[in-house]
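Quick question about two entries, pasted in order.
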Amino acid sequence: MKLRHVDQCIGKILPRQLTPGESIFELYDRFVYLRAYVWMGRRDKVAQSIDRLICLLERIAAGWPEDERSAKMAIFHVGDLSWYLEQNAADVVDYQSWKRRGWRISTSAVEDTVNRLIGDTGPRGDRKILQNQ
């Protein structure tokens, strides 16, 4: 659920070029990278991606008053996600490699972490795990 909160806040921010030479979708691309790094268990890249995302959001909050509220809310949720990942580092696994090996992803030991980070129930009540195909 933590990623969903960030996604919802970022989705309200208008696309704009934040860094010279970058895409107008740089903010959204950064979030997609962050989500992928969580999925792959790349803790080093997660930290870098969180720092970059916060930097972009701070730039938006300072430069565009119409998006300031959404940017500040996103900063809060990114910080919350960062804290959660640090506190539960032992429970965050490389979901991508587990899936490739055919291992169970959502066991009782990690189910709460999966549900909080990427859990989403579909229309039939089944779990969808970050559809990164």
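Here is the second entry:
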Amino acid sequence: MNPDEAVAFPAVNVALKDGRSATLRLLGRTDGEALAAFYAAVPPDDVRFYCPHPLTKPEALKKAASADDSRFVCLVGVAEKGDIAGYAWYRWQADDSPSSGFGICIRRDFQGSGLARALMADLLKIAARVGPPVMHLTVQKANPRAVALYRKMGFTVVREQVRDFDNEPEYCMERKVKVRRQGLGRAQVSPEMSRRRRS
């Protein structure tokens, strides 16, 4: 994200369902090694759910290096020990792009904790002010937990397709984003999110 815009979205703390807490903040240019360690913790069985995005150290360093890109927004969930426990991002190609592509990855020991929902909720609030009016994603049919989460967060299936590189059936889902014109800043926090945040 453009640094001039990023100042409007400071880090926030969230209380997770299992009693732990995490800090949600924008990815920084110095986060490459931490992101690489996060990628290395993803079990081989889960890697297929993130294709075609490689979970490698070079990709982690590349992503961190692009943290200030004006067409890329990435939130990381930082655990109490300072390690990255999850991240969510969206990216678009041009200033007039009609939609952005979305991705999310949560470390296994934080799955089910509410971190994914918290990251998505905050990211969608940023997307309501920065970027295209529509967000899209693809998700394998074999990942019903993710499909259910996306539906809860307002995404709907627009078509079914088969990935051309491994013939895996997947959904293409979209969510409209209400763009606000009155400047930057986080949207009003919902009562649910307020209960989960800690100062």
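Reply: Residues 15 and 21 are 4 Å apart (CA to CA). Confidence is low (pLDDT under 50) at residues 180-199. Hope that helps.
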